[in-house]
């Protein structure tokens, strides 16, 4: 699989973001983050912490109080078209994203919305499907593919827009270890800025340059994967302790380090 | 012997007081239909939640084998998802001498509401994903539109007799 290339990468700035679906029950309570251009940034946290809600603010699908900036463009009602060209959002459930009768038409939907002519869109579809390992799937019905293939088709649909920021919502959920490994390689190969939210800490540690942990709508900690992984008490409190599972496996006498 | 008798009498009295205290306020079960789920809330009259009350749910026509059983949460709430219409029965027991039964009528409209809700949620999700990819209301496709002028003419010719009959019938 060749390395994925996007045109350029943009930084992401979030300042004092507050958002509530219902009054008096804020989901995000003053989130501030500064994500550098080209960085692979993970946002971890338990279910209900506000991770997906935060992600939906990056391309203006939700708008809370505070400021969100993509590169030098502030996300707001007047900049949505520009922001959505810059930010590609890969949803957790690919079935929410794939809606046309063929993979080719689905992947072409974004580029055609950007104003590309049909022939250029087709070329881009072929290139991007090849890059995610789905060459030859153009005529297939997306809903007849396996979950792993649908996830890659949904990713291809986003990459076909050549975004500067690729935001992933729970990319590793429901995938077997081989597919997780394959996806981590694809994500590491992107030269766009990557923002991924996940409950699965191990793949995030493998992929990300920096990680923030979101708890109850607030950033509880930010650090490198090594710094985050080293604080076991904190991970345990955040429901992200991955070592306890390894210990349970070891306790059965299974050598997880065996080649 | 007298001491043992006193102890037993004490226990009986204590149990009686406990039961009297518990039965001093009856058990209410509030039923709310939140398609596709039914939510029960058990409370003593006066609104004190019956935490962890034992709940048994019986499907229509079933009297012995429960469809679902378990305990309410700390707020006295319990939910189940009925899978067909009919009279469902919920039995709530605080295991302190209070027991309440409720019949819950589930009609076809309950399932229709759930279907509409699920459809609406999915439509919202798909729309968000489309907007995230620059959707502005138009559907640009890879293939040119198949509708040609002669198709429109053929459709008009087909419909014309029906329109004529509708407009000029005696």
Structure, briefly:
Chain A is α/β, with parallel strands linked by helices and 259 residues long.
Provide the fold topology.
The complex is a heterodimer of chains A (259) and B (170).
Chain A (H helix, E strand, L loop, with lengths): L11 E11 L2 E11 L4 E5 L6 H6 L8 E6 L2 E2 L5 H7 E4 L12 H11 L4 H14 L15 H13 L5 E5 L7 H13 L3 E6 L2 H7 L2 E6 L2 E6 L1 H6 L1 H6 L5 H9 L8
Chain B lengths: L1 H22 L3 E8 L2 E8 L3 E2 L4 E5 L9 E4 L5 E4 L5 E8 L5 E8 L1 H25 L16 H20 L2
Antiparallel strand pairs in B: 1-2, 2-3, 2-6, 4-5, 4-7, 7-8
Annotation field: number of helices of chain A: 10
User: Could you list the spans of chain A in which at least 5 consecutive residues all have pLDDT below 50?
Assistant: 1-6
> What's the assembly state of these chains?
heterodimer
Rg calculated over all Cα atoms of chain A: 19 Å
Number of strands of chain A: 10
Shape of chain A: globular
Looking at the structure, the CATH topology of the domain at 25-134 in chain B is Immunoglobulin-like
What would the average pLDDT of chain B be, to the nearest integer? 82
Helix percent of chain B reads 25-40%
Strand coverage percent of chain A: 15-25%
CATH superfamily heading of the domain at 25-134 in chain B: Macroglobulin (MG2) domain
Give the distance, in angstroms, between the N- and C-terminal Cα atoms of chain A. 25 Å
First-residue to last-residue Cα separation of chain B: 107 Å
Query: Could you tell me the strand content of chain B as a percent range?
Result: 25-35%
Radius of gyration of chain B, in Å, reads: 31 Å
Could you say which structural class the secondary elements and strand pairing of chain A correspond to?
Answer: alpha/beta
Query: What is the count of helical runs of chain B?
Result: 3
Tell me the helix content of chain A.
25-40%
| CATH class descriptor name of the domain at 25-134 in chain B | Mainly Beta
Largest sheet of chain A: 6 strands, mixed
């Amino acid at each position: 699989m060749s390395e994925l290339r996007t045109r350029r990468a943009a930084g992401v700035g979030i300042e004092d973001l507050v958002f509530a679906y219902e009054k008096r029950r804020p989901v995000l309570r003053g989130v501030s983050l500064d994500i550098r251009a080209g960085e692979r940034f993970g946002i971890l946290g338990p279910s209900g912490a506000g991770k997906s809600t935060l992600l939906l603010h990056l391309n203006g699908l939700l708008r809370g109080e505070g400021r969100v900036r993509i590169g030098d463009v502030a996300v707001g009602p007047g900049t949505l078209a520009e922001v959505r060209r810059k930010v590609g959002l890969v949803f957790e459930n690919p079935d929410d994203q794939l809606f046309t009768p063929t993979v080719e038409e689905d992947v072409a939907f974004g580029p055609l919305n950007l104003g590309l002519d049909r022939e250029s869109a087709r070329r881009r579809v072929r290139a991007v499907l090849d890059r995610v390992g789905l060459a030859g799937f153009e005529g297939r019905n997306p809903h007849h593919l396996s979950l792993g293939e649908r996830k890659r088709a949904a990713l291809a649909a986003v990459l076909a827009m050549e975004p500067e920021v690729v935001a992933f919502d729970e990319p590793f959920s429901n995938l077997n270890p081989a597919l997780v490994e394959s996806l981590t390689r694809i994500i590491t190969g992107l030269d766009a800025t990557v923002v991924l939210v996940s409950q699965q800490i191990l793949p995030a540690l493998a992929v990300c340059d920096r990680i923030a942990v979101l708890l109850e709508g607030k950033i509880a900690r930010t650090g490198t994967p090594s710094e985050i992984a080293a604080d076991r008490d904190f991970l345990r409190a955040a429901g992200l302790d991955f070592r306890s599972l390894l210990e349970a496996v070891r306790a059965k006498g299974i050598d997880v380090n065996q080649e | 012997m007298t001491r043992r008798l006193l102890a037993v009498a004490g226990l009986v009295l204590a149990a009686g007081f406990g039961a009297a205290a518990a039965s001093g306020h009856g058990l209410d079960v509030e039923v709310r239909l939140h398609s596709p789920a039914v939510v029960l809330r058990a409370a003593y009259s006066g609104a004190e939640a019956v935490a962890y009350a034992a709940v048994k749910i019986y499907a229509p026509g079933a009297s012995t084998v429960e469809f679902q059983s378990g305990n309410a949460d700390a707020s006295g709430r319990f939910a189940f998802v009925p899978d067909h219409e009919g009279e469902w029965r919920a039995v709530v027991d605080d295991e302190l001498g209070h027991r309440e039964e409720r019949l819950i009528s589930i009609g076809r409209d309950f399932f229709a509401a759930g279907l509409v809700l699920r459809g609406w949620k999915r439509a919202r999700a798909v729309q968000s994903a489309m907007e995230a990819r620059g959707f502005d209301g138009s559907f640009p496709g890879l293939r040119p539109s198949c509708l040609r002028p002669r198709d429109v003419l053929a459709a008009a010719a087909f419909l014309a007799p029906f329109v004529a009959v509708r407009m000029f019938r005696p």
